[in-house]
Design brief:
- The structure holds two protein chains of two kinds.
- Chain A is an alpha/beta fold.
- Chain A has 21 helices and 20 strands.
- Among the domains of chain A are: 148 residues, Rossmann fold; 180 residues, 3-Layer(aba) Sandwich (Rossmann fold), CATH 3.40.50.300.
- The radius of gyration of chain A is 26 Å and the shape is globular.
- The termini of chain B are close together.
- The chains are: A alpha/beta, B mainly alpha.
- Chains A and B meet through helix 3, helix 4 and helix 7 of A and helix 10 and helix 11 of B.
Chain lengths: 573, 309
């Protein structure tokens, strides 16, 4: 009898006939509290949200805004210490905010489906994909034979589904795992699908394919979608309505384009302004312009000395891959890459995962040995460096890594973290080192009081500032940023990018910027190198590459940026 | 997989030679004369001593003794111990008894440890969890010989549920009481290990996803929490099987179990090199096989682990 309400076509509502129809999901005055060691914390308050049948609604916000918490409450999956402390969650008129676990088990899967965020951790590694689909079908009383499983998987765009069903999650790529999760989420044809950052862990081109496919499937089935994302562009592009959440409250809601072009709430305005997009320009140093950083167009290349500082010549890196029978096959992670980096400029290497961009960074940092080719640093071949010279080289070239949670030692306080490189290189005495640390903290705009704190007491953006301060401690000439802002929320990302631009202007730093995010490249880079499968497919100045991409691959990358066109100002679009 | 198993079995050879050599040397280096000890207070004629010495090759240098032992081993003739009994026969008597005891103890640990651990882990901080944690701490803290005597007194003598000693008629029934005592300490460890593993896996993303699919709670626990939680537990149990087979000298002593522990203890007292090393040789094999089984079980539990690479 449960099946009736889903499979009978008369329940589905024509997209146009939304007026006078009862909303599928209506969240009224929702409040959610978490019990923590320090008492109760209100994570969500007065949240309102309405989803009509067949409609896609996106909740946008940064981490900690309560967007995921709201969605989890709707499917009854709040963590144990969280509870709905007020308001209603009406699913087709039934209040499920305090429904019994039994009722929620009935609803989950076949009335409310979920596609979770991280494809790497959301499939159980010990069961075959087919098994994980089958148990979903079985639990919801649907036919679960091998053909049914294959059908569900192939509908989600998984090729060769019969064979794939017999494989384990670790044999799948990230994109394929996400397809499997979408297959599971939609396998019982739920009326509401909660998609929590369904593609944030994937490359842009894969992201686009998956979102396209998800859109087609939900349209076909008439499924309503609650899309959770931190990406305003993506929300605007994919959803009919956007709800913006900030610090546990809904601050603004409305039709997507309207909200994007004419934001009302100050937070939404800041979000729209700082969202990096293809329309933004190279960040100029704040003190030079004294105005909004993203507005000015500047031919940055003219202001710097065109001296070649770092030369990468025909660089190759070959890894031996072991296949099943113990035979090793060669895999060229980097295959004949050459480019120059000029002093005081920013060169970005762009590519998807597996393109070899991080391997190039590691070789420049001398953390990996090139198989072939040369890296000339200030005219000297780095492969010929003796240990003592290499030690000196490391003073001049410093890295900033992606994960500000993983790249700081949790047992070191901030002072010790920043001071460590100075101690390792035996620079100055205790007093002068302390002075240096204080200066560095000023440079990255962190308060002096941060010195005694530990990484877990800082936010993501603050941690990345610490990582920058540590990199600057040795007064390096080159900084290699490997996805240095990818893990940060949009607003924080904008602040860190501005900081990096300021430091470059003041200290004459040279940046090699590794990223998958083209919008970030647009804001910070003078030159771009696009990599695909270990090869350099296109290089040029940022303006050239963005305005007139020559290669198909570059065009595909540019097109795949969510909301790329929407984010342009109205007159341009 | 076959290659992996073969390779692991080949590793037995150096491990075997190394351990037997080491143990043999330690026995050789023990102070005191084993032959003199055989006669206690009496002083036997020198001719008798010399005959016995040459009979057991005690007059030969270390390398010759060890070489002869190896030769005996590979011809499946372990020789006689100092009381004239064939060593092979006495091993055949003691090992089955200890094997029964070990398997029973292991089963108790595994079944009860995992079951209690899962319940405690699922409701961490609940009354069951708290009770079981305190109880397991008591079990870990109290030495085996105290537990052994208490159980013997209470269940064997006062309540009469089981025979207080095992003696000559060792079978599954009579060995149950010593097996419980032997298994208790490891049971506490298995419980704590399972509990920690379960409560960690409970918060895994795939568990939440499994719930979101509409699976019932028991199904989520069985299919998605339990299997993933067993990996560290299996390691511990595997290592433990080797230890249990080595014989529990204290427990076997209390309950008078004619097993490996007792035999080994007596052999050490008499400095009987061949007997000690024979027992150790079998134990080395048991350890290697137990570890191999653990590794194979790993691969079954976690398909990401592949050995043929």
């Amino acid at each position: 009898m449960r099946d009736n309400e889903m499979t009978s076509p008369d329940v589905r509502i024509d997209e146009s006939g939304a007026t006078g129809v009862r909303p599928l999901l209506e969240i009224r005055d929702l409040a959610i509290t978490f019990k923590t060691g320090g008492g109760e914390v209100q994570a969500v308050r007065n949240a309102h949200l309405t989803i009509m049948p067949g409609e896609t609604v996106a909740i946008v916000g940064e981490s900690g805004s309560g967007k995921s918490t709201t969605a989890l409450a709707a499917i009854g999956l709040l963590p144990n210490n969280g509870k709905v402390s007020g308001g209603q969650i009406l699913l087709d008129g039934e209040d499920i905010a305090h429904a019994s676990e039994q009722r929620m088990i009935e609803l989950r899967g076949n009335t409310i489906g979920m596609v979770p965020q991280d494809p790497m951790s959301n499939l159980n590694p010990v069961w075959k994909i087919g098994y994980q689909v089958r148990e979903t079908l079985k639990a919801n009383g649907r036919p679960s034979g091998p053909d049914d499983i294959a059908k569900v998987l192939s509908q989600a765009g998984l090729p060769d589904a019969k064979r794939r069903a017999g494989q384990y999650p670790h044999e799948f790529s990230g994109g394929m795992r996400q397809r499997a999760l979408i297959a599971i989420g939609l396998s019982c044809q739920p009326r509401l699908l909660i998609a929590d950052e369904p593609t944030s862990a994937l490359d842009v081109t894969v992201q686009r394919q998956i979102l396209d496919h998800l859109e087609t499937m939900t349209k076909e089935l008439g499924t309503s979608v609650l899309l959770i994302t931190h990406d305003l562009g993506l929300a605007a592009e994919r959803a009919d309505k956007v709800v913006v959440m900030y610090q546990g409250r809904v601050v603004e809601a409305g039709p997507s384009l309207e909200l994007l072009r004419n934001p009302q709430h100050p937070y939404t305005k800041r979000l729209v302004e700082s969202a990096p997009s293809l329309a933004s320009r190279r960040i100029q140093v704040a003190k030079e312009q004294g105005v909004e950083t993203t507005d000015l167009l500047a031919p940055a290349a003219e202001t710097v000395k065109p001296e070649t500082f770092l030369q990468i010549q025909d660089l190759r890196k070959v890894y031996k891959l072991r296949s099943g029978l113990g035979k090793a096959t060669d895999f060229a992670a980097v295959d004949g890459v050459s480019f120059d980096v000029r002093r005081g400029t920013t060169t970005a290497i762009v590519g998807e995962s597996g393109s070899g961009k991080s391997t190039v960074a590691k070789m420049v940092l001398q953390l990996e040995k090139p198989t072939d080719g040369r890296i000339l640093f200030d005219g000297v071949d780095t492969s010929a460096l003796k240990p003592a010279e290499l030690f000196k080289f490391r003073r001049r070239v410093q890295p900033i890594f992606q994960d500000p949670y993983g790249s700081l030692d949790p047992m070191y306080n901030i002072y010790r973290t920043i001071e460590e490189p100075l101690r390792v290189h035996k620079i100055g005495d205790q007093a002068s080192r302390e002075k240096k640390v204080r200066t560095l903290l000023d440079q990255v705009a962190l308060p002096q009081s941060a010195m005694q704190r530990y990484p877990n007491e800082l936010s993501g953006g603050q941690r990345q500032r610490v990582a920058i301060a540590r990199a600057l401690a040795l007064d390096p000439e080159v900084i290699i940023c490997d996805e240095a802002v990818s893990a940060l929320d949009v607003l924080v990302q904008a602040q860190v990018l501005n900081l990096l631009a300021d430091l470059q202007a003041n200290l004459g730093l040279t940046y090699l910027f590794i990223t998958h995010d083209l919008a970030v490249v647009r804001q910070i880079a003078d030159h771009v190198c696009v990599m695909e499968k270990g090869r350099l497919v296109e290089t040029g100045s940022t303006d050239e590459v963005f305005e007139a991409p020559k290669q198909e691959y570059t065009k595909a990358l540019l097109n795949a940026i969510p909301g790329a066109k929407l984010m342009l100002p109205p007159e341009v679009a | 997989m076959t290659r992996f198993i073969l390779r692991r079995l080949l590793q037995v050879i150096p491990v075997f030679l190394g351990t037997t050599l080491l143990v043999y040397y330690m026995v050789f280096a023990l102070p005191g004369d084993p032959i003199a000890a055989l006669f206690g207070d009496r002083q036997p004629p020198q001719a008798v001593i010399d005959t016995l010495r040459s009979q057991y090759h005690l007059d030969q240098p270390f390398w010759v003794q060890y070489g002869l032992f190896l030769k005996n081993l590979f011809t499946f003739n372990l020789g006689n111990d100092f009381t004239g009994q064939p060593i092979a026969a006495s091993l055949a008597r003691v090992f089955p008894v200890t094997a029964m005891l070990a398997i029973e103890a292991l089963a108790i640990q595994a079944v009860f440890g995992v079951a209690f651990g899962v319940f405690a882990g699922l409701r961490r901080g609940g009354w069951f969890d708290s009770t079981v944690l305190v109880a397991s701490l008591v079990v870990i803290a109290v030495p085996t010989f105290v537990l052994g005597f208490v159980f013997q007194l209470v269940f064997g003598v006062q309540l009469g549920w089981a025979k207080p000693t095992v003696g000559a008629n060792a079978n599954w029934g009579t060995l149950l009481l010593p097996a419980v005592v032997l298994g208790l300490v490891s049971f506490a460890y298995v419980l704590r290990l399972t509990r920690a593993s379960v409560s960690e896996n409970m918060n895994a993303d795939y568990v939440r996803t499994a719930t979101a699919k509409g699976l019932s709670r028991p199904r989520v626990v069985m299919a998605h929490i339990l299997r993933n939680s067993l990996i560290p537990v299996v390691t511990y149990l595997g290592a433990n099987l080797g230890g249990l087979m080595g014989g529990a000298i204290v427990t076997e002593g209390i309950f008078n179990v004619p097993g490996v522990g007792n035999k080994l203890y007596q052999a050490v007292l008499r400095s009987e090199g061949p007997t000690i090393v024979s027992i150790v040789s079998v134990l080395v094999l048991v350890f290697v096989v137990a570890n191999l089984l653990v590794d194979l079980l790993y691969a079954w539990l976690d398909p990401r682990i592949r050995y043929d690479q």
